[in-house]
Specification:
By secondary structure, the chain is mostly helical. Among the domains are: 255-318 and 346-403, no CATH class; 414-526. 67% of the residues lie in helices and 5% in strands. It has helices at 12-15, 17-40, 51-63, 85-96, 104-130, 136-145, 148-154, 160-179, 185-201, 208-218, 222-245, 255-258, 261-272, 275-296, 302-326, 328-343, 349-354, 356-372, 378-407, 414-430, 442-449, 470-484, 494-505, and strands at 436-439, 452-454, 488-491, 511-517, 521-526. A five-stranded mixed beta sheet has the order 2-1-3-5-4, with helices on both faces. Strand 4 (511-517) and strand 5 form a beta hairpin.
Length: 529
């Protein structure tokens, strides 16, 4: 024995460039998500999705020491509509880059970073929970995160990218804790804190709470259930107390955009009855079905689209079993989230794309179940081959949908910015700096002009099923005008212009037209102050 150390050369494949690339694939995937997302970021005006301007206004309020309040409204009432998670993150960025609108690009890049980190978390999630390989896991993450509608949200100042990141992080930790009956109390508390924080980014995160509680109770881990609930409550209770303490600070016609979500839905159920929820579910389900048809079979006829969607549904149903077995919290959270989306009286597209990677996971898991199936009968083997061929066609349709959407620039807000520009220019150049202006896109107008602004109305839950007639919008507008007494009404959107015109024709008239501007804009002043 000489004590010499014998070294065994690593196998050739372990040192090969291909093997190195495989190991680096998660980083390559993340870089691809960030690079493509960043290339789509622009400095166009915020407000294309309305919520983005509202988030930024709240971020400005927090960053400038005004608290969680609506700075555009006279009196700056407390904000109770959006939970403070995403505006709080934006406020930190606003402090670092306080020059608006130059900082809009920073906010959009931050969302691209959140999407990139979501891709990293998703890669880890599917590899740990479903044993996806070193190549399959990052490729799946890229295919899910780079869906163009998701990129649209990731390149605007919207809360969905941060929500997805928070949700995936919570699920990663929660599923590990569920698997460990002897998990330390600190880890259980961490899940509660993460679930609460996710809900403070987007209220739909509340679906996490019953999911974790139910799985822990099914496994008879009641002490862990109590720890989770207390930690979650510690995060959410202050926000709920804030909402309760500042309810009804704005006129009823404005509560749809400035009041709490519970009040918005409660008002509709009280006025229309419980049947309202059934009608909402029918419409949201139809919208989701129509939307997904074009995702799996773009450019095809109705019969082919429906057939393709049914096939995708079968694959997704096959994926439910492995999802429940490997990730029960995720399965229940997704089910609860789906219930919220179906019964929420609003166009569901954003809510669907917000959790698209988890929805996309279901048919992928279903396809893996098909691959693992070993039928003995020749007829069943042919069935398997046909089903896998169908899955491949669906995958091709999904790729086509995204390629076409990318080529068409579907994510861009430039059209909205151009439409809104004449209105903003008019307010900035034709109204006094201390004027209160009633206008559409009031948060955007406030951000770009500094004027105090009030809305010309607000979304109501009942509008989702049957939009109000012009007289209904006119009545709501009259209440807002009576409350805030604005110096002028500046409007360009068709139905709001019609409502303002109706007020000018009433006897006695409430408004008088005094000017116009490009794009069909109309300027009116109240006849009494």
């Amino acid at each position: 024995m000489t004590g010499a150390v014998v070294t065994i050369p690593a196998p050739l494949e372990a040192r090969s460039p291909v093997r190195l690339l495989v190991r680096l694939l998660p980083l390559v995937a993340a870089a691809a998500v960030f690079g493509i997302g960043a290339s789509m970021v622009d400095g166009w005006a915020v407000g294309a999705l309305r919520d983005d301007s509202m988030y930024l206004e709240l971020a400005k309020a927090l960053a400038t020491g005004h608290g969680y309040h609506w700075l555009n409204l006279p009196g700056a009432p407390a904000a109770t509509h959006f939970p403070p998670g995403y505006p709080g993150v934006l406020a930190l960025l606003w402090i670092l880059a306080p020059s608006f609108p130059a900082n809009v690009v920073l906010f959009k890049l931050a969302n691209t970073l959140f999407a990139t980190l979501s891709a990293v978390c998703l890669t880890r999630f599917v590899s740990r929970r479903f044993d996806m390989g070193e190549v399959a896991a990052p490729l799946f993450a890229v295919a899910a995160i780079l869906a163009v509608p998701m990129l649209t949200l990731a390149t605007q100042v919207m809360s969905e990218p941060l929500f997805l990141l928070a949700l995936l992080t919570t699920l990663l930790v929660a599923e590990d804790v569920i698997d460990d009956p002897n998990a330390r109390w600190q880890r259980v508390v961490a899940v509660g804190l993460l679930a609460g924080a996710t809900t403070l980014v987007r209220t739909n995160g509340v679906a996490l709470i019953p999911a974790v509680v139910l799985v822990l109770c099914l496994r008879r881990r009641f002490r862990h259930t109590a720890l989770f609930a207390l930690a979650m409550l510690a995060v959410l209770l202050p926000w709920q107390l804030w909402v309760a303490a500042h309810a009804d600070l704005v006129p009823a016609p404005m509560r749809g955009n400035y009041g709490s979500y519970a009040a918005l839905l409660g008002d509709a159920v009280r006025s229309r009855g419980i049947a309202f929820l059934g009608a909402v579910a029918a419409r949201t389900s139809a919208e989701i079905t129509t939307m997904l048809q074009y995702v799996v079979a773009p450019g095809m006829g109705a019969a082919i689209r429906i057939t393709a969607l049914l096939a995708a549904g079968v694959l997704a149903s096959l994926g439910i079993r492995p999802l429940w077995r490997r990730a029960p919290v995720t399965a229940l959270c997704l089910a609860g989230y789906a219930v919220i989306v179906v019964f929420w009286p609003y166009t569901p597209a954003r809510f669907v794309w917000c959790v698209w990677p988890l929805l996309f996971l279901l048919p992928v898991l279903g396809a893996r179940e098909l691959l693992a199936w070993v039928p003995r009968a020749p007829a069943m083997r042919l069935t398997k081959m046909a089903a896998l061929a169908g899955a491949a066609v669906l995958g091709l349709g999904y790729v086509t949908f995204n390629v076409v959407s990318f080529r068409n620039g579907s994510w861009s807000a430039s059209g909205y910015a151009e439409r809104l520009r004449p209105l903003v220019v008019y307010v900035a150049t034709k109204t006094p700096s201390d004027a209160v202006v009633a206008t559409e896109a009031e948060n955007t107008v406030y951000l770009y002009t500094g004027r105090k602004t009030v809305p010309l109305g607000s979304f109501m839950a009942t509008d989702y099923l049957k939009p109000r007639a012009s007289a209904g919008f006119a009545d709501a507008m009259a209440l807002v005008l009576d409350r805030y007494r604005p110096a002028a009404v500046v409007v360009s959107t068709g139905f709001l212009r019609a409502a303002a015109t109706e007020l000018s024709l009433r006897q006695p008239p409430l408004l008088t037209a005094i000017d116009s501007f490009p794009g069909g804009g109309l300027v009116l002043v109240p006849t009494r102050r």
